[in-house]
Amino acid sequence: MASDLKPAYAYTVVYVKDVAKSVEFYGKAFGYPVRRLDDSHRWGELESGQTTIAFTPVHQHETDDLTGEVQEQKSKTRRNQLEVCFAYADVDAAYKRAVENGAEAVCPPEDKAWGQKVGYVRDIDGIVVRMGSFVKSR
């Protein structure tokens, strides 16, 4: 049956230098409670709704040998192929909280032509985090 083949989007895995620090940072900066941090600090998850945000070390035997090494952020003039995006009812307050809790300010929230308010920060590993409002219906 074709409907049995439709997958649920389960995880986004963010490769970071220090899983415990990243889990704590994302919890404070973006307002997500920690769901899980294993004792080895090699896997962490946030309570982020239907799709889980998970963290694992940049360098690890399990995936490096199978799929290759993770490309680390080398410069602020270039960014990773991943952008983490969060939607908030109050983007200005969320942006302020993120910066007050260690996120690097990139661009404060501004209204966009497509009906969304959007601001950008970088996390503690240099990954771009987009903070936006829900898109307004026209």
Describe the SSE topology.
Layout (H helix, E strand, L loop, with lengths): L10 E6 L2 H12 L3 E4 L6 E3 L5 E6 L3 H7 L16 E4 L3 H10 L3 E8 L5 E6 L5 E5 L6
Parallel strand pairs: 1-4, 5-8
Antiparallel strand pairs: 2-3, 3-4, 6-7, 7-8
Structural class: alpha/beta
> Strand count, sense and closure of the main sheet?
4 strands, mixed
Shape: globular
Ranges where pLDDT stays below 50 over 5 or more residues in a row are none
Summarize model confidence as the mean pLDDT: 86
Task: Provide the CATH superfamily.
Answer: 2,3-Dihydroxybiphenyl 1,2-Dioxygenase, domain 1
For this structure, the CATH topology is 2,3-Dihydroxybiphenyl 1,2-Dioxygenase, domain 1
| Beginning-to-end CA distance, first to last residue | 37 Å
- Along the chain, the helix and strand elements come as EHEEEHEHEEE
Instruction: Give the domain tally.
Output: 1
Helix content: 10-25%
User: What is the CATH architecture annotation?
Assistant: Roll
What's the CATH C level? Alpha Beta
InterPro entries: Glyas_Bleomycin-R_OHBP_Dase, Glyas_Fos-R_dOase_dom, GlyoxalaseI/FosfomycinResist, VOC_core
Organism: Lactuca sativa
Domain VOC: 8-134
Protein name: VOC domain-containing protein
